[in-house]
Predict the structure.
Amino acid sequence: MSGCADAARVLSPYGHGWVVCHAPLSSLRRGAISYDSSDQTALYIRMLDVRVRSQVGFEPERRGSHPYLGVDFRTLHSRAESAGSIPARRIRRLFSFQRHLLSSRLLRGAPHLNPLHILDEDYCGQAKCMLEKVGSWNFDIFLFDRLTNGNSLVFLTFHLLNQYGLIELFQLDMVKVRRFLVLVQEDYHNQNPYHNAVHAADVTQAMHCYLREPKLAQSLTSFDILLGLLAAATHDLDHPGVNQPFLIKTNHYLAALYRNTSVLENHHWRSAVGLLRETDLFSHLPAEDSLSIERQLGSLILATDISRQNDYLSRFRTHLDENDLCLGHSTHRHFVLQMALKCADICNPCRPWELSKQWSEKVTEEFFHQGDIEKKHKLEISPLCDSEANTIASVQIGFMTYVVEPLFAEWARFSDTRLSQTMLGHLGLNKASWSAMEPEVSGSSEEGESESARATEEPSSRALSQGSQES
């Protein structure tokens, strides 16, 4: 990217040409869209933050015949603020900044300078108490997010990196780590009901639970753990709140960029690499080590593509049948990490009902919102996205039956522990709870299940993934 102090050239996210946008370079959105051409001549394309675009009057160029393409994904699920009111998000950011200053002073060992820290410190204290039980499967990520004023991903991931001793072992600069995590959190669209930073934090916490399982804890290296946590935190980075079939049928530029193959996963991965390079998080490591981290991070994130679910499950089942998984081999450890991330990504139905129900409502809200957009613009409605043909219960029953149960049954074969049995227990109870809510279960739920099965078999269907669309 080239530019001067008061102007910058960026690629229009909805067009093919370069657009000159007069804005300070410091105002440009850091780390979002990435690009990897076949001849490696282009690497990263930056994208303006929606606020900057609105300030400078930048209107995205419409492509094709679909008017929805003119809508910015970052405002897809936004709700109108009441006139004259201070946006709640702005208030949270102000508190977050105060909390950031407080934590920075504590890291430096500096004394408190402001007597107004007392209330803030009280909330930090409650969050700290929760982190003492971060390995509990009942961990309430929604409560933790409230206690951290919407900064659950930053606080939780930083805590885990420190708890595993990874910051010291890999000689990571704490300022760079915090900056990287803040940028990661900001690049999640918190207007999305489901695919937001809280989901990323929840997946990261689940990944931590799996990393502590005996088979993994005894064999994984510190490098494996670092990759697992980073992949969990970034696995849905910059998710637009719609699925891959939607991007393809609207001729979205991301679909063309990645040739309709694992579009969202490729984008999440490249976005994460962009932030790693921008923050120079691993710049002190040998170049080949840094590139290895980027490649293996991509391999983990790409494994969350729901269209490849059966491939991974079949490989996993074969390994278990033949009892040939050797965690002393790096390739086998990496494969197990892929399976662990897949489990973490769709583990919501295996959580206690109070948590699982909230996630189910959020992901279905996102599905149905996409379906409403498709109806409005006379597009084919994606599977599970039609609110008139589906209910939350029918969607969840089908998802649990065809996606979650097969995966977690094999995971329990691999790691037959108390946690695995707890997850299967919650899964059974939650499925029964949804079945009790669904009228005419024998008819309507079977219809929902068959639609879920069809969605799983479709090569490009992420609509089903409460873990890949929940990804």
